[in-house]
């Protein structure tokens, strides 16, 4: 039996439209979804008719983060680093459009994209600290985009925030009403101009990936196997407060 792809592909006047289509787990970053998305990005880079990539989603969630039910802790952090690196090194710009919720690793995916827009239906939260974890791997793209004081607040508290705040702190580039103008600008730019301009814009993120990714993957694996993380994830599944909540 052939498994349906978790990322749908379409083409719209020079834009490769990639749609996360795994609503059963809120577009969580499973190994299968990461593989499908990486394949789609590779195909977009090879296609001379593609000027840029638009990453969107089905359902009410842009991306819920890691899929622990499907993959456990295993190779998840390393696979996510590989996806972030693929987006950063792609010769073509990647634009994300969030019409729904983004949590944990989903915010890393959003931040890895060169441009991100969101609607008023979107909400955002770095939920890791409430589960006994930390935003280890995703801190690489997030800290490259977000105001440091805001990142410190939301990393530590796990508070939910809206699109207006996401734009204010730099996690999101603009409201979704700006998307048409953004895509028009990308269609008007030369392939060489886009590739070289993206290389300039992503230099600090690529350097951070080269220097810090391995350590953060190790941190993530250590935290996921801790007693506090086990309690945090049990509490989440059981819809109760963890033992440390005051």
* Structural class by sheet pairing and helices: alpha/beta
Assembly state (oligomeric):
single chain
Uncertain regions spanning at least 5 consecutive residues? none
CATH T-level topology of one domain = 2-enoyl-CoA Hydratase, Chain A, domain 1
Distance between the termini: 50 Å
Radius of gyration, rounded?
17 Å
Number of strands: 10
CATH homology-level superfamily of one domain:
2-enoyl-CoA Hydratase, Chain A, domain 1
Shape verdict = globular
InterPro entries: ClpP/crotonase-like_dom_sf, Enoyl-CoA_hydra/iso, Enoyl-CoA_hydra_C, Enoyl-CoA_Hydratase/Isomerase
Family: Belongs to the enoyl-CoA hydratase/isomerase family.
Protein name: Enoyl-CoA hydratase
GO molecular function, one term: catalytic activity
Report what the structure shows:
Pfam families: ECH_1 (PF00378). This is Enoyl-CoA hydratase. One of its GO terms (molecular function) is catalytic activity. Belongs to the enoyl-CoA hydratase/isomerase family. The chain is of the alpha/beta class. It has a domain at 7-176: 2-enoyl-CoA Hydratase, Chain A, domain 1 (Alpha-Beta Complex). It is built from eleven helices and ten strands. It has a six-stranded mixed sheet with strand order 1-2-3-5-7-10, sandwiched between helices. The protein has a four-stranded mixed sheet with strand order 4-6-8-9. Helix 1 (31-46) links the parallel strand 2 and strand 3 (52-57). Helix 3 (76-89) runs antiparallel to helix 10 (203-224). The chain is globular. The chain starts with 6 loop residues before the first strand and ends in a 9-residue tail after the last helix.
């Amino acid at each position: 039996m052939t498994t349906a792809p978790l990322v749908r592909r379409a083409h719209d006047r020079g834009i490769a439209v990639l749609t996360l289509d795994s609503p059963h787990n809120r577009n969580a970053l499973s190994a299968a979804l990461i593989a499908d998305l990486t394949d789609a990005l590779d195909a977009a880079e090879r296609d001379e008719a593609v000027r840029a990539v638009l990453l969107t989603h089905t359902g009410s969630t842009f991306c819920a983060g890691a899929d622990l039910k499907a993959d456990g802790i295993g190779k998840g952090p390393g696979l996510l680093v590989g996806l972030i690196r693929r987006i950063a090194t792609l010769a073509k710009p990647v634009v994300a459009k969030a019409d729904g919720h983004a949590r944990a690793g989903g915010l890393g995916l959003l931040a890895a994209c060169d441009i991100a827009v969101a609607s008023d239906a979107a909400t955002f939260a770095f939920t890791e600290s409430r589960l006994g974890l930390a935003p280890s791997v995703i801190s690489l793209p997030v800290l490259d985009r977000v105001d440091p004081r805001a990142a410190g607040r939301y990393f530590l508290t796990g508070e939910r925030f809206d699109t207006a705040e996401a734009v204010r702190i730099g996690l999101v580039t603009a409201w979704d009403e700006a998307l048409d103008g953004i895509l028009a600008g990308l269609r008007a730019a030369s392939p060489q101009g886009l590739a070289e301009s993206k290389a300039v814009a992503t230099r600090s993120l690529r350097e951070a990936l080269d220097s810090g990714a391995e350590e953060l993957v190790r941190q993530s694996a250590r935290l996921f196997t801790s007693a506090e993380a086990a309690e945090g994830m049990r509490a989440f599944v059981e819809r109760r407060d963890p033992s440390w909540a005051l």
